[in-house]
Amino acid sequence: MKRCHFCGSELDMEGRVGRRDQCPFCGRDLHICLNCRFYDPGAYNQCHEPQAERVVDKERSNFCDYFSFREAGAPDDRKGHKNARDTLEKLFKK
């Protein structure tokens, strides 16, 4: 099952996600880095696919040929980074 990054709605989609496909619930683009299984904010260019070209705006549709939709059950590292940052800010009382 696939899930929209923006609204969190589960999407019943089969096959490849096209560049112009949008979420039927919130209307946002689906072929974006934030929905891709290769996206990782800690990686070089925030992508684990070494041959992919750099995409500046991770929230907008792009032409990446390596896009593969992240499965709903896949771990989401972005939440872990935010929790770690919050913990450090509390520790140093920022």
Would you mind describing this structure in some detail?
With 94 residues, this protein is mainly alpha-helical. The protein contains 1 helix and 2 strands; from the N terminus they run E-E-H. The protein has a two-stranded antiparallel sheet with strand order 1-2. The longest helix is centred in the C-terminal third of the chain and has 15 residues, at 77-91. It starts with a strand and ends with a helix.
Primary descriptors:
two-stranded antiparallel ribbon, 94 residues, globular, single chain, mainly alpha, 1 helix
Shape: globular
Rg measurement, Å: 15 Å
Query: How are the strands of the largest sheet arranged?
Result: 1-2
Q: Count helical runs.
A: 1
The major pleated sheet works out as: 2 strands, antiparallel
Structural class: mainly alpha
Q: What is the share of helical residues?
A: 10-25%
In terms of DSSP E residues, the strand content is: under 5%
The succession of helices and strands, N to C, reads EEH
Q: How confident is the prediction overall: mean pLDDT?
A: 87
Query: Which parts are unreliable, with pLDDT below 50 for 5 consecutive residues or more?
Result: none
How many beta-strand elements?
A: 2
Q: What is the CA–CA distance across the termini?
A: 39 Å
Quaternary class: single chain
Can you lay out the helices and strands and say which pair or pack?
Elements: E1 2-3, E2 10-11, H1 77-91
Antiparallel strand pairs: 1-2
Give the gist of this structure:
The chain is mostly helical and 94 residues long. Helix content is 16%, strand content 4%.
